[in-house]
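2024-03-11 09:14:02 INFO receiving multi-entity request
2024-03-11 09:14:02 INFO entity count = two
2024-03-11 09:14:03 INFO echoing inputs for audit
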Amino acid sequence: MAWHPTTQQKVAVGYFVAGFCAIALLDGALTLLLPKPAVLAPQPALSKAMTRQDVTLEQWSNAAERLEEKRKLARL
Amino acid sequence: MRWSLELIPLHYRALAAGICAYLLWPFAHAPQWQWQALWQSEAETAAALAPLMSFYTKYGEPALPALNAQLELNKLRDLELSLIAANADFADQDRDDTWAEATEFMIAHVAQNVGANELRIYDSECRNNLCRIELAAPKGLNPEFRALVLKYAATLKAGDLEFHDLKEGKDRIMLELKSDKRLQYGYFEERALKPAAREQWLAEVKAWLGTQQHNKK
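2024-03-11 09:21:47 INFO inference complete, emitting structure
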């Protein structure tokens, strides 16, 4: 006979999904509410691009410096 | 009454499992730099962001894809540096068979030809980019033997093996040599170091550099 989930199992799955979504919403709200450095406030495009990367401020600056170096080398 | 997990109602357990699943999902959390803004002062974050801000004010939005790509490439470089650090000692290294066998052969061959067969190798072992050679030194590291070892090391240096370490034992010396070859890592490390998107990141940086050159003309 084919397996069918019991009502209790269906309820458990429902709660699992609900828990997942609740934390996802909380996380989204947290990302919105967490402060952004004041220097980023006038640069919405940059701060929006930055939210996609989970790295430190220093790592962002390192990438910018490296790109600047590459540009200097490319110009030679 | 003994406590057990079953005492917690099923739906609470499922809820907790859902929450844990989400929290363990590695990409789902606020970015680190935003947390940094919480614990660092405004002056500290401004100082940390100074190079980024000057870059952005200079090149604006068209530079963003390249910046993102460079950040990913930097992450790969950091990963490689951490792997190099984790393989710094002979004991930590796995064996890169092809290189190790060829180098062990060369070590034995060079030992025969340097100093008219006066060097006796007890044992030689190569791993990922380090080689250990145990040389017989019955009279210790006396000047003649030292000269012989230096000559041996110089000959090996011509074969891309730099002197790395030397330890003196009772009747033997242990010579450690290092090659500047690229380390070979396991399947998962190699996969992490060369993701499919890597070529695209390189192309994005290159494209941006290309447009920069074009603008200059």
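2024-03-11 09:21:48 INFO post-check: The mean pLDDT of chain A is 87.
2024-03-11 09:21:48 INFO post-check: Chain A has two domains: 1-34, 38-76.
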